[in-house]
Model the fold of this input.
Amino acid sequence: MTSFTAHNIRFPDGSLSIPDHPHVLADVPHCEGAKRVLSMLYGDACEGKRIADLGCLEGGYALEFARMGLDSFGIEVRTSSFENCQEVKRRAELPNLDFAQDDVWNIAKYGPFDVIFCCGLLYHLDRPRAFIQLMGQQAQDAIIINTHYAPQGWRPKSVFKFSSMTEHEGLPGRWYEEPKTETDEQREKFKWASWDNHRSFWPTKEALLHAMNEAGFDLAFEQFDTFGNILHNGTSKETKLNHRGVFVGIRTRALAGRSAHGHE
Done:
């Protein structure tokens, strides 16, 4: 196991994975927002529902979903991060939590799932539309995507350096250059980069929602309560320059099924 660098997890014995970190992952707005979506979908009936956490890093989100009662399955490609996931599994002692070391493009080997959680991953892919289609094939009820997106406009203000507006996979967006990694050793080192493609494509916000709708999620929307104060984050300079959001796709039959069950 390597030291934890991203997910500050509180274990059953009260210890923390990153003791000096100011926040526990369970209390971070990204995590709380995802749990609210799951509660909307399933209420207190999460037991037996399967969720996949793609590119799960150190396993913190997957653990929180398992604590809600879902059968939680994380997929992580980097060995160092996967070792941390295994440590989380060992210390959490939850039978409904599991991990696999694999490329997320191989998700069909482990599915299907009821929900797919995709946080900090889509903007590292060079074929995001194809990947959203893949998630649509493997998620029966919903997907939750936390990602950067391409800003509109000719010369948008941004903290990122990317291409001018173009089209890829039939979607408008911008190309972003990833760190050049050629060996597995280099790929392990750059944890915040793509695993094997040297540039990624960021669709616009509208294109993301369209692709989700196209993948079979007839209700697709941006979730605004996952970055803390909605008013502040909607107008802050930092948020506008980062071009990041959370996008939820739901097959409304999942909601209809819950409603019908509740009235039986």
Notes: The CA atoms of residues 44 and 190 lie 39 Å apart. The chain has a mean pLDDT of 89.
